[in-house]
Amino acid sequence: MDSLKINKLRIALRAYESDLLLESCREIVDAVGVSCLRVVGPVPLPTRRRIYCVLRSPHVNKDAREHFEMRTHKRIIDIYQPQEEVMSNLRNLNLPAGVDVEISNYQIV
Description:
Alpha-Beta Plaits, 22% helix
């Protein structure tokens, strides 16, 4: 049996700030674009909103409340038939702090 090759590389990005996320996606697509591979993305996924309700005063004025919101923006980038050159380019990227990157590979037999 031949050694299995990676057919698709999926990169999932998460961040609280959409500007940092878009900048990171641009850097990844540029790093992969050097080798003329097929790249799909960045595909935007639904933004997760977490809303927290906090009492302004803990003992009195129960009606006085504040709402805080955290938004988690997500993007997915798929790279088909990645080569060693692409993998080394992705390893050498300097992505901004605050961007969570998750890389998974799929082997289609």
